[in-house]
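User: I want to check something. If I give you two sequences, will you return the structure for each one separately, not as a complex?

Assistant: Yes, each is folded on its own. Here is the first sequence with its structure:
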Amino acid sequence: MAYKTLFSVITDTALAGPVLDQATAMAKAWDAHLDVLCMGLDRTQTGFYYAGANAMILQETITRAQEEAAEVEAHVKEILERSDIRWSLDSGVAQLADMGRHVAQRARFSDLAILPKPYGEKRGVEQEPILELAMFDGATPVLMVPESGPALTNPKRIMLAWNESDEALAASRTALPFLKQADLVRIVVINPPVHSPTRSDPGGLLSQYLSRHGVACEIDVLSKTLPRVSDVLMRHAEDTELDMIVMGAYGHSRFREAILGGATRNMLENAKIPVFLAH
């Protein structure tokens, strides 16, 4: 198993650098093809226009989105043309509420989506739903790239956050190409359930499963000494000098749309290293 089709969505030239650095480095290392979707977005909410608004306003927002798409496409094309990887580029315009079909349709036919950190200063409101759409609607794992740091092709020290959930198991399986090449994978368990049948050996069955794939792993059982689980994970990642975090992405339904849960959101808000997510 390997990642042979990589996918990314770029809506802002200011966020393109780290994402494309990571994507092109991975495409070269894994002999993969990179698909990039450049989008210009109409961020207005037409239902809240003041009385008397007319078609000229609608046309103005569409024209602005088209100009943004052209600017992003030119920027991304310039970067990719300097690389020596196989790539394709597509661009389009959509309203915020209509991004789903564009992002999910392309994500479905890729092995891994590489996307920017969705939270922080000067980040558009579209970054969070793009990540959600790729993962929930597109059923594709996502590698979230932070603002800075070197591009990782074969991270050597990886944390695997484990809580026996379906999401964590899905992340373990889809991250196998990374895990198999790592020098060490730390399976991190926080406060194992008291009545769990694996209480005496938390993470044992997972480590057995991974070891049969040639993954070198150890189990770290931690106490929840900080208010949030994500804080414990990030502190442990810093203390053990890890290169990447692998975790399940948790969400819940709101108006029949899956959105990120609190633990996943907290991790993405504060992570300083790449985070691999799967649902």
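And separately, the second sequence with its own structure:
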Amino acid sequence: MPVEFSDTDGGDTRGASAKAPPPALRVRTHRGYGGNRVPLVAAPARTATLPAGGTADTEAGGPPPRVVTTRHPWRWVAAAGIAVLLAMAASALITNPAWEWEVVGEYLFAPSVLRAVVFTLELTALGIVFGFLLGTVLALMRLSGNPLLGSVAWGYIALFRSVPLILQLLFWYNLALLYPRISFGVPFGPAFFDIGTMDLIGPVTAAALGLALHQAAYAAEIVRAGLLSVDRGQREAAAALGIPRTRQLFRIVLPQAMRSIVPTAGNEIIGLVKGTSVVYIMALPELFYQVQVIYNRNGRVIALLLVATIWYLVMTSVMSVAQHYVERYYGRGRG
């Protein structure tokens, strides 16, 4: 059995028949990103000095390296502190009777509240659909080589992004003060028929119109940024193959641009769900207006505000999950 003598032992190593295996290594690991352990090789462990005539109980390959996990005590301290804060917040929500959870449960699924939730979703859908349709047209106008189209689109975006949404809604709601009747006919020529502005643009139409026109200004910049993110060589290659420009846009450019459009568009949709609460000034029965009506009648202000908070949280959470799957769909093949 090979024997290794320490250099402080004073023994003569010239008669040793073979050398001992190299000293064992202590391996320390660090948990990196993604949960992978990254080995960190430490200094060789000191070998014990064998007395004369002693034997080394080791195998030919030497002892296996010992893995030592890096400890992070401050992570546990931070986690414990956050857990205590969460427990305190939960206790404050549950034990404080002023929250009136029984009233929240009573009105959470009340028919009037459910109708208000549906109306809120309808306003959101109208604003998003027509807003992004108009926004796509504005984005294409800005990207066109026609200076007039580009200037008109730029002016529209600058105007509607500068005026607050509540002012736009009030403007459309009171449009009859400017134009009592709206005529249809030849521009600068005879009118075929006209109709009263109040009959044509009611409160719901004014709300949907204001939301859509306001959203179109932001949607135009989102779509334009997505289109610009697609490499120009894609369009050049499609043109070289003789593919029509409309087909280039809808079959080649837009599917790739959606990777950049969807995340920002999802944020805009979620923001518009909450932005519909502004139409309460038009006395429309959306969610925020409806809970105001109820708590003005029974005085349960905090409980009814909690009802609205829960429903807004549910709607935005569902939309966030849908956004995740849409992003994953358009992100196929990336990387």
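Because they were folded independently, the notes below concern the second chain alone. Confidence is low (pLDDT under 50) at residues 1-18, 40-58. The CA atoms of residues 39 and 61 lie 20 Å apart.
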